[in-house]
Amino acid sequence: MKKFSHAWLAFMAIKRLDDKKQTLSETDLKHAESLISWFMNHKDGVTQGAWFPDELIKDMKEHHILKITPSDQAPADTVPYPPEKFRPLPPEYLIFKYGKDSPVRQQGFNVSKTDNLPDRCESLTESVIDHLKVQQHEDKGSPVSPTDNQVALWLFMLSHYVADAHVPLHCDSRQFSEFNKIHPKMEAVWDDEIRKYYRLNKQETRFLYDEDGYPKPSVDLTSDKSYQQSFLKTVADELNNRKLSLSFGGDNHNVWDFMNAVCHNSYLLSYRFLPPQYKIETITAENWKTLASPALSIEQLSTAVLADAIDSIARVWFGVWKDYEEWEAKPTQKSSKNNTADLKKTKTPAA
User: What CATH fold (topology level) applies to the domain 3-332?
Assistant: First the structure.
């Protein structure tokens, strides 16, 4: 995905928790409100932090992808899995629903040995929790204590990798980047739409904010006729109507399991949208959006990718925050140092 897509998804993940927080249990509500409050104190760094993996770190060849191939076409240097090894997603996920009709669903599949997007997500998840724990344990000014900005950076970077797993072509070994540039064209569809309906500052370094602290729309979203036809409106409606669940679904016990499930279903979605009977040579900049239409349009694909990515970032971030705060609440973990009092006053981890 592109720069402002990543930032917008991060904001919308927090907004999803905010919009649905009254449906949570009393315990989960406390964790959600704490995370929302902390995020709002650090939101100016979202655009830069969530873009660092592409702009600075540039680990796209391994950490942003999990390339999957149907077994009958897979090269030797891949790991084979039978079709029953596909990990399911929560049933409300659109990439799961659309992937059910994928032409490769009942086939075995092979996964690249070098790609490790789920591992990257799990690693960053644990890093955020560890940073928060060290920060809580150490005195203010300790040379080994992370700052709030460092914790925020790791959290925003985590959202980047979680979002990338929802991009179908990040999980499809067919070469849509090099030959016909379909990959960047697909991602441009999302970024262009977000930039069309949300305001940026003059330097185009971040979003302008509305009164609630979220990206400020450039039109009246309740009445603008163009927006009513946009897949961004469909994304908002989908999430508004979808119950907020904070579990990873099925037998996904951790972030690694969950992100593998996302990647597996993104692969299925890619073959549903770009059917295998169309060879790469016949898929062009003119026809790529319509190969699966009307059964699956670019608007439906976009809604699935963006809505599910928002839901996933919200789930992963909430899980991070809950794990940390449950650790912090244990009597043996409570610190008598000044930063504990600061945490209670600000509802955010102390710097």
Answer: P1 Nuclease (1.10.575)
CB 15 within 8 A of CB 211: no
Q: Which residues of 151-180 are buried (b: 16+ CB within 10 A; e: fewer)?
A: bbbbbbbbbbbbbbbbbbbbbbbbebeeeb
14: exposed, middle or buried (C-beta count within 10 Å: 0-12, 13-18, 19+)?
Answer: buried
172 has which bridge partners?
68
List residues bridging with 112 in a β-sheet.
Answer: 78
Q: Where are the domains of the chain?
A: 3-332
pTM above 0.85, yes or no: yes
Q: In what order do the strands lie in the sheet with 109-112?
A: 68-70, 109-112, 78-81
Q: Which position has the token pair 């039978």?
A: 82
Q: How many CB atoms lie within 10 A of CB 57?
A: 12
Residue range 87-108: mean pLDDT, rounded: 95
Residue 11 CB-half CA count within 13 A: 25
Q: What is the pLDDT of residues 53-96, one digit of tens each?
A: 999 999 999 999 999 999 999 999 999 999 988 898 999 999 99
Token pair 């680990």: residue? 59
User: What is the rounded distance in angstroms from the CA atom of residue 61 to the CA atom of residue 55?
Assistant: 14
